[in-house]
Amino acid sequence: MTIMPAFLKKLVALPDWLLFAVVAAVAGTLDVWLLIGWREISPQNLSWLSGDPAQYEVGWEFLRHEKVWTFPLTWITRLNYPLGASASNMDFIPLVGVPLRFFASLLPIDFQYLGLYAIACYCLQAFFGLKLVSLFSKNDRVVTYLGGAFFLLSPILTERLYGHFPHSTHWILLACIYYYFRFSPTKSLPQYLSPFVILGMIAAAVTPYIALMADILGMAAILRARLEAGRRPPAVLPAASVAQSASERIRQWLNGSYLLWAGIILACTFLSLMMFGFVVPGQSQFAGDGYTVFSMNILSPINPNGGGLLFKALPVVGIQGYEGYNYLGIGILLLLLIAVARDPRSVGELWSVATRPLILTSILLTLLAVSLKVTIANHVLFTIPAPRFVYNLLSAFRSSGRFFWPVHYLLILGAIVGIVSTVPSRFARHLLLASALLLQYFDLLPLRNGVAAAARKPHINELVSRDWSELSKQHRHLVILPALQCDADLNPGGYAVWPRFARLIARNGMTLNSVYLGRVPAQTNMLDCKEMPQRLFRDGMQSDTAYVLSDAYTAIAASLPHLSHYCRRVDGFNLCTHDPVRAHESQQLIDSILPYYELGTQLRSEDPTPKSLLLENFDDAPGWGKWTSGRTAAIYLRFRQPVPHDMRLEMEFTNVLLTARHKQQRAFVSVNGRPIGELDFHVNGANASRDLEFPGSLIRNGGVTSIRFDLPDAAAPNDLGINTDSRLLALYLHRLAIVPAKQYPVRDY
Is residue 168 in a domain? Predict the structure, then answer.
């Protein structure tokens, strides 16, 4: 006898749960390795981190360097300074990060756990997939392993490895479905429902999305227990007596109160959310931008997005293709069709007591996923009106398309159970499931190849100068303006470079104002987007603070009197550090950023922007016009000499965003914070040109002058049904010039 058959014989003889664990560990690890490779799995490799994964790692970086434990356990004081923030608002996976903090001093300096967490999730996904299918496989191990593989190859799970590691925790949903079907009349309520309490608390230590889904499945289990109890004769309970112990009364209560168990599940989940910093009283911002944008399209279950064997990618509204992705795969769709065709009556049997709660739950979750804006392909069918408080409540879970995930897994389970129930021949069942699994794998190859290609994408470190590593020698704080949370487009480096700055600050014991949070509190917006810039322009730079500023902010701040910071270009960024000796050299940077403006110099959209004009929130590329983008736009310039006379701002517009639905655009114009007039545009009006006169005394001699446009009526073309552009647009500027008020206007027409 050879060694291999003996080994296989011992392996097959293992108890089912242990054999499932072994198979799941091997299959889950192998699948993750094939998808993202050792590069992302290696704990000491940070070179691949970008986008959301980089945000997660920064949360861990700051938490591991916190010196004092606080409540919540994830609170960090040196990021979003001086307000602080919860690292959970950066999706750093508290379930892993908080325990690892105890060992932070023992871990390598470069350490990330995202790849290992993905392996753990995939292994548990395979394990609970096997356990779930085993409940319906009629002791057929081939069916169990083939069916379990469908859950491991789930498209919605694979897609999460594009970077959303916390949301790879789908095994909790499978575990909830598994324990739902573990109901038995002989089990007490605590025995049946306790797993949902534990799973809800675990999910709340990862992400509120999966926590809510787990709790909804827990409510379905409570409803099933109640319906099942209604089919049995009522139990005869002993009469309460004074002598009855308190523990006995509590036990009776726990065994008979369904509302109590609903409260226990929800309360334990909420306490876990608070403990791990997802809910912080007085600090949390629940409503999020993007609700209805990240929703599920009605055709999502048959839309492969990137293409498949049979179905081609279907157009969707906006950017539904990622968070709204819920493709089932051709293999599962085929199995569902076969099962229903062989026994159409089985659909009606789903309304049985055992599965009725899951049907109701699936309807609820599908409605949540679709959101108040119901879409099919690239068409909006209708929008459901809702009171503001309802809209804000729903927008707390802005990526609503995720709520279809439990329904997705129930459909996979239904396809497998349907084949087991309707195909009597074991050989035919095996052949059907194996063929469907093969089809499923090849159908998902474009998705899997896309994930693998993204995992191999190179990323560079933009901060290579020694100046960065030496910041902490003289400074306690780094201030980046505009802060990322205020304007990602104007922020120096944007989302791509922010993690580099943040990791540098975390490791050097400094503080950072700029932050990348899932939800930005109103206090943060007020401080970083309004008060901090005003303080900088009013009081100048602080001696204990280094600054990384946009061109406009640098030109303004470095032009202030009594400058004590040395501002220069470092790795393409404007860095200002406290250095009174070299502060005068900052003038070189100002001159390179914004040369002096000569009266009459014109900004023309078809030509490159003059170097003496610095545009903010205008299109960059030459064309028929330059759209304003957002609710504010600004132009910065410097005058060499005092301006003794009144000036005129001449403007011509190629277009203004006006439609029959959006009939007015207003622009409130100010110079250096002083209002100089309002521009008013109407449908079918004379909108081609506008002039505004203002006193020359408003212009700062030698300093930076700002011309600001406040645009309260800016709108997104996709909201107006024009096209798919989601930017907030208002004015399409063709020409602008500043001339003496007495000069005769110059027009192109």
Answer: no
Q: What is the pLDDT of residues 502-531, one digit of tens each?
A: 999 999 999 999 999 988 888 988 999 999
Q: Do 608 and 723 belong together in one domain?
A: yes
In angstroms, the CA 412 to CA 406 distance is 10
Residues 633 and 590: beta-carbon distance below 8 Å: no
Per the rule left: phi > 0, alpha: psi between -120 and 50, beta: everything else, 692 is beta
What span, in angstroms and rounded, lies between the C-alpha atoms of 639 and 598?
7
* Of the candidates 122, 75, 113, the residue with the CA atom closest to the CA atom of residue 93: 113
Q: Are 714 and 686 part of one and the same domain?
A: yes
633 with 735, same domain? yes
Residues 6 or more apart whose Cβ sits within 8 Å of residue 489:
617, 629
Q: How confident is the model at residue 233 (pLDDT cuts 50, 70, 90)?
A: low
330 is written with which tokens? 């051709």
Answer for the pair 654, 715: CB distance below 8 angstroms, yes or no: no
Nearest residue to 200 via CA among 229, 228, 179: 179
One domain, residues 667 and 545: no
Give yes or no: residues 612 and 564 share one domain: no
- Token pair for 701: 């001699």
Alpha helices in 81-166 (DSSP H): 94-101, 114-134, 141-152, 155-159
Residue 744, φ and ψ in degrees, nearest 5:
-70, 135
- Do 508 and 637 belong to one domain? no
The span from the CA of 479 to the CA of 274, in Å, is 29
**Distance (Å) of CA 149 to CA 4, 330, 420, 451:** 24, 15, 16, 19
Mean pLDDT score across all residues of the chain: 92
Lowest mean pLDDT among 300-309, 601-610, 654-663, 719-728: 719-728
CA torsion sign for 301, 305, 308, 311 is positive
Residue 543: both structure tokens together: 């001696």
The C-alpha atoms of residue 636 and residue 427 are separated, in whole angstroms, by: 76
Helix (H), strand (E) at residue 578: strand 573-578
Helices (H) and strands (E) in the chain, counts: 26, 19
Q: Is residue 566 part of a domain?
A: yes
Q: State residue 170's pLDDT score.
A: 98
Q: Tell me the C-alpha distance between 359 and 351, whole Å.
A: 7
Q: For residue 189, is it within any domain? A: no
Q: What backbone phi and psi angles, to 5 degrees, belong to 28?
A: -65, -45
Q: What pLDDT does 142 receive?
A: 95
Entry pTM: 0.90
Half-sphere exposure in the Cβ direction for 715 (13 Å, CA): 18
Provide the domain count of the chain.
2
Based on the fold, state whether residues 477 and 575 are members of the same structural domain.
yes
Indicate the pairing of strand 689-694 with strand 647-656.
antiparallel
The answer for residues whose C-beta is within 8 angstroms of residue 243's C-beta and 6 or more apart is none
The residue from 593, 620, 643 where one domain ends is 593
32/14 Cα distance (integer angstroms): 25
Phi and psi dihedrals of 160, rounded to 5? Answer: -65, -20
89 closest CA partner among 115, 121, 56, 111? 56
Positive or negative torsion for Cα 330, 333, 335, 338: negative
Token digits for 109?
Answer: 């300096």
Residue 705 lies in domain: 602-740
- Is residue 381 within 8 A of residue 375, CB to CB? The reply is yes
